[in-house]
From TrEMBL:
GO terms for cellular component: cytoplasm. Keywords: Biotin, Ligase. It is an enzyme of class 6 (ligase). The keyword ATP-binding does not apply. This is biotin--[biotin carboxyl-carrier protein] ligase. It comes from Kaistia nematophila.
């Protein structure tokens, strides 16, 4: 499979390193940062054998799925760098909409399955903090890793995994893949669109100065906004209505007793699972 940068990405001087098979694209990117790579470089493969998810979980990337990591080097401000996860979510959302527009909306009979005229509902949603959902099932995951480097800079690796041909089995949550829904595109096409979408959204982010605009765009596509959610943090579970994300990207929920809680990291559950955890 031949991966290539999109035109806008190449024009913005991003670089690309490809692998037929790789242990971890995130690991390759961070190793490059330690060796002095200046950033703006993508590391991508259609087969990853040692991928990682959040909280150290194993991220499965069988042949044909997409594993891509982008190395960026930014000022050493961890809170600002953390908002790059929302840039990645928006970029991937834009990329999927461009290559598979039929996935964007579901048409329901008399509006039963959707909202608005003709019962249209957006099928692609962004789950806080770093997942992309399709029809409520996980289609893609995003993992940020960061290390300080000389010059008071921070090397940030944004890992993005997309289930193109197959979704992992045996997970505690539903997962799906593009091929399972009849979308006949490959990982190279998804990556090309992603590289261009990243260049566009990153300009809006503007080294963190434009996060308010990114936040607004992300909330427009957020899963569960205004609904009851449950957030697990270690052994504790907090339930409440998902009200917004704040200016640092933290989740803001309001509990039934009116208490507002701001959460920096946690595992979010929706629907009946959230209700049962109250």
């Amino acid at each position: 499979m031949e991966f290539k940068l999109g035109r806008a990405s190449a024009e913005n001087h991003y670089r690309l390193r490809t692998f037929e098979t790789v242990g971890s694209t995130n690991a390759e990117a961070m190793a490059a940062a330690r060796a002095g790579d200046p950033g703006a470089c993508w590391f991508v493969s259609a087969h990853q054998t040692q991928g990682r998810g959040r909280r150290g979980s194993h991220w499965v990337t069988p042949v044909g799925n997409m594993a891509a990591s982008l190395l960026v080097v930014v000022p050493n401000h961890p809170a600002t760098a953390a908002t790059l996860g929302f840039v990645a979510g928006l970029a991937l959302d834009e990329a999927l909409r461009s290559v598979a527009p039929d996935l964007m909306l579901r048409i329901g009979l008399d509006g039963v399955e959707g909202v608005g005229p003709a019962g249209r509902r957006d099928r692609l949603r962004l789950k806080w903090p770093n997942d992309v959902l399709l029809d409520g099932a996980k289609l893609a995951g995003i993992l940020l890793e960061a290390e300080p480097i000389p010059g008071d800079r921070l090397a940030v690796v944004i890992g993005i995994g997309v289930n193109v041909v197959a979704a992992p089995e045996g997970l505690p949550y539903p997962a799906t893949a593009l091929a399972e829904l009849g979308v006949g595109i490959d990982a190279a096409r998804v990556f090309e669109a992603l590289s261009d979408a990243w260049a566009s959204v990153a300009r809006v982010w503007n080294d963190g100065r434009g996060f308010k605009a990114v936040r607004r765009l992300w909330l427009d596509r957020a899963a569960g906004l205004g609904e009851t959610v449950a957030v697990r943090i270690g052994e504790q579970v907090f339930s409440g209505v998902f009200e917004t994300i704040d200016d640092e990207g933290r989740l803001v929920i309001r509990s039934p007793d009116g208490l507002v809680r701001t959460i920096a990291a946690g595992e979010v559950h929706f629907g009946t699972v959230a209700t049962s955890r109250q």
